[in-house]
Specification:
The structure is a single chain. The chain folds into three domains: about 150 residues, no CATH class; about 110 residues; about 160 residues, Heat Shock Protein 90. It starts with a helix and ends with a helix. It contains eleven helices and eight strands. The chain is rod-shaped, with a radius of gyration of 51 Å. The strands form two sheets. A five-stranded mixed sheet has the order 4-5-6-8-7. A three-stranded antiparallel sheet has the order 1-3-2. Strand 5 and strand 6 form a beta hairpin. About 60% of the residues lie in helices and about 10% in strands. It is an alpha+beta fold. It is an enzyme of class 2 (transferase). Its EC number is 2.7.13.3. This is Oxygen sensor histidine kinase NreB.
Length: about 475
């Protein structure tokens, strides 16, 4: 039950209690008034009867007395049979029973056998008419009062609807509130408190976004340092291992000729062959570690976002997968900030090459560019690893205050009851990174249905910030440098 209904019900109950109390007082007063009227009528009838004392009450005299128009009184002979009470014409039986006043009779011993009967029915009917009129007036006043209360309470509680809408905006992350309390002091203080809360939440969110951006930037810088250490230390170690293994292999290649010239034993030749085999194994292992290090470096710090603008890096990323998986239909759509400037909102970017200069993605700060790239990269890997899609669509939209990313495939979709947040480190890492930047990440069925079979859609919304200064340390294309060093 709403507050408005409760207030109106309370007012209605109060009016009913007042009406019941007033009715009880009126009934009690009416009972006393009817009894007093009956006593007065009997006293009058007694006086008239005594005037007729000593005379036989003839029928003409009784008819004359009853024709005097005396209310409530009837004069009957003493020896007459009792007559039934007159039927009520105006007051209902239950009201007469509520008044509880019965007809009263007085027998005059010296009145020549005359009986005087005082009947309350006319008086009760008169009281009923008065109370009916009063009840109708009270009902009309009560209805008018309820209508006025309905309008007044509705007007007084109208700001609460605005407060509710404001709280919904707060839950949605929109803190630009304008709350009008309608001149009610209590609600005005409440609205001021909600507005202050909104300002505090907005400041806290801005601070959280700045902190999250600094955290992500620090993580990227740490990844950069780790990648540099892997490149410098591991690259040099692999190079030394390959040089030593190559030298051993060359030495063992000359060992059989020397052994044949010097007349060495067959065991020496066999040992030289085993050493050569081990040297080739070391070279193969070093090559495998080299490939593994390239993958680690690519995960720690993708080279493309450092070497190319984000739009071109995304085009190269999707194009690389298109070359690896030609059986899959690939679509990349990058939309500018203002589609009215000449680019249709539904226009996709041709992977074979097109002018993406109108796309506003390249104006994002470094942390946001790397996050967008990683989101698309991880989503494509998951789409190909966990599904067998025939079509993959990548859509990136750069708006004034945010960037929206959506990667959709037509695979089997997510199984029922599957929690994407517990799928692995890749998705959990994406969620943590997006939340640190103040954005939101959603993974679900591409068709918006609860059942599987509609493909999978990974969508993210990231707020845009002012471009942050680039780190002081230069970023090198680690994979290519390591390859040249090795």
């Amino acid at each position: 039950m709403s507050l408005k209904t409760r207030i109106l019900a309370l007012i209605g109950l109060f009016l009913l209690l007042m009406a019941a109390a007033g009715g009880a007082v009126l009934v009690a007063n009416a009972r006393d008034a009817v009894r007093a009227e009956m006593a007065s009528a009997l006293e009058l009838g007694s006086a008239i009867g005594r005037r007729m004392a000593g005379r036989d009450a003839a029928a003409a005299d009784l008819e004359m007395l009853n024709g005097l128009g005396l209310r409530h009184l009837r004069f009957i002979p003493d020896d007459a049979a009792p007559e039934p009470a007159a039927e009520l014409q105006h007051a209902p039986d239950w009201f007469a029973a509520l008044i509880a006043v019965e007809p009263q009779e007085l027998r005059l011993a010296d009145g020549g056998g005359l009986r005087i009967v005082a009947e309350p029915w006319d008086e009760i009917a008169e009281v009923w008419e008065d109370m009916s009129d009063l009840a109708a007036a009270m009902l009309a006043v009560g209805l008018l009062l309820l209508a006025a209360a309905y309008l007044a309470v509705g007007r007084a509680l109208a700001p609460l609807a605005r407060f509710e809408a404001g709280l919904k905006r707060l839950r949605a992350g929109r803190y630009d509130l304008s709350l009008d309390a309608g001149g009610v002091p209590e609600l005005d203080r409440l609205g001021s408190g909600i507005a202050a809360l909104a300002e505090g939440l907005a400041a806290a969110e801005r601070e959280n976004r700045r902190v999250g951006q600094r955290i992500v930037a620090a993580q990227d810088a740490e990844r950069r340092e780790i990648a540099r250490d892997v490149h410098d230390e591991l690259g040099a170690a692999l190079f030394a291992i390959k040089v030593d293994a190559g030298r051993i292999l060359r030495l063992t290649g000359r060992a059989p000729d020397a052994a044949s010239r010097e007349g060495a034993s067959p065991d020496m030749a066999e040992t030289a062959g085993e050493v050569a085999e081990r040297a080739r194994t070391i070279l193969d292992t070093a090559a495998e570690v080299h490939r593994l290090s390239r993958r680690i470096l690519a995960r720690l710090r993708p080279a493309l976002p450092d070497q190319l603008p984000l739009s071109e890096a995304l085009t190269e990323l999707v194009g690389d997968w298109a070359r690896r998986k030609p059986e899959v239909e690939w679509t990349l759509s990058m939309e500018p900030q203002d589609p009215a400037q000449g680019t249709s909102p539904d226009a996709g970017a041709d992977l074979d090459g097109c002018d993406l200069g109108s796309c506003d993605l390249d104006g994002c700060d470094e942390v946001l560019r790397l996050t967008v790239y990683r989101l698309v990269q991880e989503s494509l890997v998951n789409a190909l690893r966990h599904a067998t899609p025939t079509a993959v669509v990548v859509r990136v939209v750069a708006l004034g205050d945010r960037v929206e990313i959506a990667v959709t495939d037509d695979g089997p979709g997510l199984p029922d009851g599957h929690d994407p947040a517990r799928s692995g480190f890749g998705i959990s890492g994406m969620m943590e990174r997006v939340q640190a930047l103040g954005g939101c990440l959603t993974i679900g069925d591409a068709g918006g249905r609860s059942s599987n079979g509609g493909g999978t859609r990974v969508s993210a919304r990231l707020p845009r910030h002012a471009p942050s200064p680039a780190p002081s340390s230069a970023t090198a294309p680690f994979a290519e440098t390591l390859e040249r060093t090795a």
